[in-house]
Amino acid sequence: MNAADVPAGRLRELAAVLGASPAQDDSDLGIRGLAVGAAYSLARALQLGYRDPAGKKLAKEYRQQLAETAAAVADGQGVSGEWLATYYFNNALIRLAAARDRLDKLKQNRKRKPGVRDEVNIFKHEFGGFVEHPRSVNMASALEELSLLVGVIEPAVE
User: Fold this and answer.
1) Cα–Cα 20 to 30 A to 111, which of 77, 80, 91, 153?
2) Domain membership flag for residue 158
3) Does residue 89 fall inside a structural domain?
4) Is residue 125 part of a domain?
5) Distance, C-alpha 117 to centroid of its chain
6) Is residue 139 part of a domain?
C-alpha cells in the first residue's frame, strides 16, 4: 500500500460527506465551499507527490525552484513538481484556517488547539516565513483538521 493511499481514501470519504447533504444557509454554504476546496487541494498535493516538511525550514533548493516556477509562469508554461504540490498543500491550510475561523464565529467557540491556524499566521505575517520558522503542520494534521471541520458541519457522521 502506498503511503498516500490512506490520506487519499480519507479525503474521498470526507468529500463524500460534504457533498451528501445540502447547505443549511449561506454561512454553511461558504464554510462547505472552503472545506471542499481544502479537500481538493490536499488531494492534488498528494497526487503531485507532496512530501511533508514538518519540522524543517524551506529547502535550500527553494530559491531555485521559485526562480524556475516564475520563469515557467512568465513563459506561459505549466508548473509541476514539488513547488506545485506545496502550493496546493498551503492552499488547503489557508482554506482550513478560514473555514475554522468562520465556524468558530458562528458557534462562538473560543477554544482552539494550535496547529493549522498558527501555521497560516506564520505564512501570512512573518517576514521570514518558513525560511526562518520550521513547518509544524503535516499532511496528517491537516487531514485531522479537515475531519474535525467536517465533524462540526455534519455532526452525525464523525
Assistant:
1) 91
2) no
3) yes
4) yes
5) 11
6) yes
